[in-house]
Amino acid sequence: MAESEALGSGPIAPDWRPPSLDTGVATPARMYAYYLGGKDHFRADREAAEKVLQSMPIAREIARANRAFLTRAVRHLAQEGITQFLDIGIGLPAPGGTAETAQAVWPEARVVGVDNDPIVLAHARARPGVEAGEAGPGAGSEPERGPELVVAGDVRRPEEIVKHPEIRAVLDFERPVAVLVVAVLHFVEDADDPYDAVRVLMDAVAPGSVLVVSHATGDFASGPMLRAAKAYEKTTARAVLRSKGEIGAFFDGLDVLEPGVVLLPYWRPDGELPEEADRIWMYCGAGRKR
Ligand SMILES: C[S@@+](CC[C@H](N)C(=O)[O-])C[C@H]1O[C@@H](n2cnc3c(N)ncnc32)[C@H](O)[C@@H]1O
Known about the structure:
Layout: H1 3-7, H2 28-35, H3 43-55, H4 59-79, E1 84-88, H5 98-105, E2 110-115, H6 118-126, E3 149-152, H7 158-163, H8 165-170, E4 178-182, H9 194-204, E5 210-216, H10 222-231, H11 244-248, E6 255-256, E7 262-263, E8 282-288
Parallel strand pairs: 1-2, 1-4, 2-3, 4-5
Antiparallel strand pairs: 5-8, 6-8, 7-8
Helix pairs in contact: 2-3, 3-10, 4-5
This protein binds S-adenosylmethionine (SAM).
């Protein structure tokens, strides 16, 4: 059964539990929460994350820089007039998220989250007013109301995302949509064709839509990065490092926004660059569909 079916959607029973929440195996979403100082992680996540930190003590700064990039990118696109956001691999709630950032610019901004980790959906279900698999009530009426909808889905099955009736009920694909795939594509192996996934997503949305990507690279410190990537082998998703050229290729056919594909801190910084900017080994960028 596909995971999106297994997780289901619809009204929430009071005793609902995510059916496939396995706390014994680390997941990228919970490890990321650990790096960011969040609370939603279990022993397996902490152990795996500590292994990564042993190989690469800067991993925590990289996670923070990634979140800060996401925030800057969403703010920039909202300020440019985008009011619809499809956040694939939305992750667990943490400061600087897509909805709070976009809705600070456009209170009526609509955000849909997609994730393949059951704990992310469980969180969305626990949030009053915004329930997994259901559009939240009162769209446009309350500030900081969070994502309209969070659904189970997998970027490796992009057709299911772009055809998802509940997503299409919230986001109007005839108008520009920011498609965020931030710190997600390095969990998609070549065999699952991440380039085709991005193409399917961007083919489905209107001209003026923008793809936002960040992605881990082994271009600089291949040793520590490879050891860190190896620590993900025992988690639910293997990590794949790609070169700057390979990451830039996600934007093929799109107009890459300034400043191009750069290490995270260099993308439209809103303050001084951190001292360790050149050791934040993840590339990022944004590209607009003509
Ligand atoms: C490192 S977190 C990034 C969270 C958020 N995008 C950010 O940048 O702050 C990666 C997220 O992608 C999700 N993810 C990993 N592989 C995925 C896939 N194949 N499809 C959808 N989500 C995926 C994980 O569950 C996790 O929530």
